[in-house]
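Suppose a colleague, Dr. K., hands you the sequence of a protein chain of 212 amino acids and asks what its three-dimensional shape might be. Before reaching for any lab equipment, you can write down a predicted structure in token form. Begin with the sequence itself:
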Amino acid sequence: MGGVLNSHPNALRFQRGVSLIELVVFIVVVGIAVAGVSQIMVRVMGHSADALLRKQALAIAESLLEEAELMPFSFCDPDDASAASAVDATVGANSCTATVEALGPETIFGVTETRYGGAASNAQFDNVSDYHGFTMNAASGGILDVTGSAIAALNRYSAAINISEQGMAATAGAPAIAATDALRITVTVTAPDNSQVVLDGYRTRYSPRSLP
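The predicted structure, expressed as tokens, is then:
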């Protein structure tokens, strides 16, 4: 019996369990690690929500910018009798009969143009410059489609369009463009968290007698 015990002098030490101090230290370390992971998860989830809002705001801005850019940029309001033949943005012979296209919606025959139109044939935006000053916000139902119907999922977003004349200097191989022949379109969309997406686009008067 004695020989067996003497052959393993460290047997009792090898079988020693975890001390209370080691257990407490382990619990503290694990607790700190879990807290750190939790903070990271909360931050990632928050950023994911922010990314979704920004993605939706960007989609709205891109849609409105494209909508405005695809409109005619004519000398006269497209409802003017001489819109298809005018050679400049004035009223007179070979020019507009009555209404030169200007920044902002026009009032034609007592009807002011809107994005959504109405019963009158001349009531809808029909030129890129008509979008100047256009807005959509929560008070008006949020983001609306071109028929004026609210898009429920976007009722907390707002959008605004500003258009300004933007001349361009001459460059190598390209002539200068007069201020009245180029427009800068700025679309600003505000998300529910008040973050904003701002997009700019340009429209030149390359087809002044092309009508809707």
